[in-house]
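Structure ticket #2291
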Amino acid sequence: MTPQALASLKAVCAGAEEKQEAGHRYVYLPQLKVPVGGVVKVLDALLAITGESGYPTRLFLAEQITERQTIGDKPANWSQHSVLGRSWWTWSWRDVPVTLPEVQILLSHLRALQ
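Resolution: structure written out below.
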């Protein structure tokens, strides 16, 4: 990841840092502000930017967002995963391409939860 890409992510989440595991690139986002409906939840997140489990990109969260059992008009299909030695939750959402800038990947995933 370029320094500019990391700086853009740090503008959204000051503690953003790049991580790697098993050939996959991630960005750890501690205390990310996640807007859900009219509420903002603050929780750790992990952005997968090189594909994960058949998805081009994914956003993993420290907890399941129980308020979102549907995303758009489809079931959210929440699932739990172990990445970087920690348990994470994510939902079925594959429409965020890896060709976007990293900050746009993150914002696209967050928009799905609003």
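Closing remark: Residues 3-113 form one domain.
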